[in-house]
């Protein structure tokens, strides 16, 4: 049950979040939209209401959490208006989804 609540929180944050891609400023809108469509589960998302940042890459372990580099690269983490830093260390997307 706790796992479901955690995923519900993550999905809720994704729904409220506004994508913040550093490369958006230098690329054309068409290129950025194409990148978002190809990899919707990768990026930096921010919810202004809760002041929570979500750094996510569900395609590969490419994100290093600041202050936790000794743990290696992960697939994501949240920080900001929450207690501490929450790290995503494992996920699974069923093939039929």
Query: If you compute it from the alpha carbons, what radius of gyration comes out, rounded to the nearest whole angstrom?
Result: 14 Å
- SS field, number of helical segments: 2
**Structure summary, number of beta strands:** 5
**Coarse morphology:** globular
Strand order within the widest beta sheet: 1-2-3-4-5
Largest sheet, if any? 5 strands, antiparallel
Total domain modules: 1
SSE-based structural type? alpha+beta
How far apart, in Å, are the first and last alpha carbons? 21 Å
Which band does the percent of strand residues land in? 15-25%
The average pLDDT score comes to 73
The helix content, as a percent range, equals 25-40%
Order of helices and strands: HEHEEEE
Report low-confidence residues grouped into runs of 5 or more. Answer: 1-5, 20-32
Key attributes of the depicted protein:
23% strand, disordered N terminus, five-stranded antiparallel β-sheet
Structure write-up:
The protein has 97 residues and is an alpha+beta fold. It has one domain. It has helices at residues 2-16, 29-38; strands at residues 18-19, 42-47, 52-57, 76-80, 86-88. Strand 4 and strand 5 (86-88) form a beta hairpin. The relative contact order is 0.14. Residues 1-5 and 20-32 have low confidence and may be disordered.
Helix-strand layout with pairing:
Blueprint: H1 2-16, E1 18-19, H2 29-38, E2 42-47, E3 52-57, E4 76-80, E5 86-88
Antiparallel strand pairs: 1-2, 2-3, 3-4, 4-5
Short synopsis of the structure:
The chain has two helices and five strands; from the N terminus they run αβαββββ.
């Amino acid at each position: 049950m706790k796992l479901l609540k955690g995923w519900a929180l993550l999905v809720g944050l994704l729904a409220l979040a506004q994508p913040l891609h550093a490369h958006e400023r230098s690329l054309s809108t068409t290129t950025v939209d194409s990148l978002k469509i190809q990899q919707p589960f990768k990026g930096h998302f921010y919810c202004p209401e809760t002041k929570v940042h979500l750094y996510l890459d569900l395609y590969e372990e490419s994100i290093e959490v600041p202050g936790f580099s000794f743990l290696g690269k992960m697939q994501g983490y949240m920080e900001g208006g929450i207690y501490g830093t929450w790290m995503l260390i494992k996920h699974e997307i069923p093939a039929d989804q």
